[in-house]
Amino acid sequence: MIRSKLIKKVHMECPLCDHVHDVEERMRIASTIIKGEEVDYEETYYFCRNCDDDENEFVTGKMENENLLNARNAYRVMHNLLTSSEIVDIREQYGLSQADMAKLLGWGEATISRYESKAIQDEAYDNILRIVKDNPLVALDFLQKNKDKFSSLKAMGIKQRIISNLDRDGKEYLQRKALESEYANYQEPCDANGNCLLNIEKLEAIVSYYAKRVSNLYKVKLMKMLWYTDAISFRENNASMTGLVYLHEAMGALPVGHYKIMGLENVRVQEEEGFDYTKYHVLPNELLDENALSDAEKEILDAVVGKFNSYTAQEIVEYMHKEVAYLETNDFDVIPFSVAKNIRSF
To answer: Can you tell me the distance from the alpha carbon of 133 to that of 307, in angstroms, rounded to the nearest whole number?
Structure first.
């Protein structure tokens, strides 16, 4: 824990010694009780070196309010609740005042104001705020339900801001939900998902990582590389990397919801017309940060690239067909990771 850290010196009239001089603004980790639980939080205070040890600290009213807010936010983090600043971000996402945000949700006008400054929201309210943040369609539904609380002009302005968010974020949200719906039966770590729940952010980062290093990366080859990625990860860590569930298909292992993977907003795909089918050329996404992947994960990805970079789609399919996991499962069966980990030399 940080015992005490100097933030800056402030030239001011000190209320303790009644002299004008440089007073130290400091920060430390303090503890308090919130809702019956001890909470550690960052506390700021002023320190006067001219005073005796028993009376050398003071706080302003503003500082005291900020310290209380820090303590409440620390409690929120402990209980996986939105912090006050995160609630502000949601409100500003739709360009709403505190009162208008509360009206939109059908709450008391002061509710949002209290959540941003004093009160800690219940889990039910927290869940509503998270849904509205992620899905502008839900915000639009709330507006329709509570439009009588606004003038027609204001309701129209709010609707336009929500639609703007829908155009920007709604498509990605719906695509993610479409893929997540495929994994409704895999909500717990198990042998089918490699003891890992679906991680779309990690999946998108891996796809872009491969696309950057494999110039002609198409869907069939990518899906096999993902299976090898997760199989190696499970072999080494007893957990897959993406949480994907793979089925025994004619073309080898294919993830559940593979077409929806290709439709994710952060998966860059260029469609190319083949003789009688569409080919999906996977491209890197420069907006994704590869630091989302650990060094150990990158080592696995690099091993997969090193093995299959020069393989054609057909060659990697034929290679995968000889894996024990493929030979010991039937058509359309889930390929368990307890078997998948027994991959050939790599």
So the answer is: 42
SS3 assignment, position 328: coil
Q: Give the Cβ contact number of residue 215 at 10 Å.
A: 7
CA 266 to chain centroid, in Å, comes to 13
Encode pLDDT of 216-268 as tens digits: 899 999 999 999 999 999 999 999 999 999 999 999 999 999 999 998 989 99
286-297 mean pLDDT: 92
In angstroms, how far is CA 147 from the centroid of its own chain? 31
Q: Which amino acid is at 241?
A: M
Question: 329 CB contacts (<8 Å, ≥6 apart)?
Answer: 248, 335, 336, 339
Q: What pLDDT shows up at residue 1?
A: 45
Q: What is the DSSP letter of 166?
A: I
Evaluate if residue 305 carries a pLDDT over 90: yes
Residue 37, helix vs strand vs coil? strand
For the sheet containing 57-58, what is the strand order?
5-13, 20-34, 37-47, 57-58
Q: Determine the length of the chain.
A: 346
How far apart, in whole angstroms, are the C-alpha atoms of residue 203 and residue 237?
Answer: 17
Instruction: Quote the DSSP letter at residue 291.
Output: G
What pairs with residue 29 in β-bridges? Answer: 42
What does the alpha-carbon distance between residue 333 and residue 143 come to, in Å, rounded to a whole number?
Answer: 45
pLDDT at 2 over 60: no
d(CA 46, CA 23): 6
pLDDT of residue 4: 85
What is the distance between the alpha carbons of residues 162 and 173, in angstroms, rounded to a whole number?
14
**Cα 325 to Cα 341: distance, rounded to the nearest angstrom:** 8
How far apart are the C-alpha atoms of 103 and 110, rounded to whole Å? Answer: 9
Bridge partner residues of 44 (DSSP): 27
End-to-end C-alpha distance for the chain, whole angstroms: 44
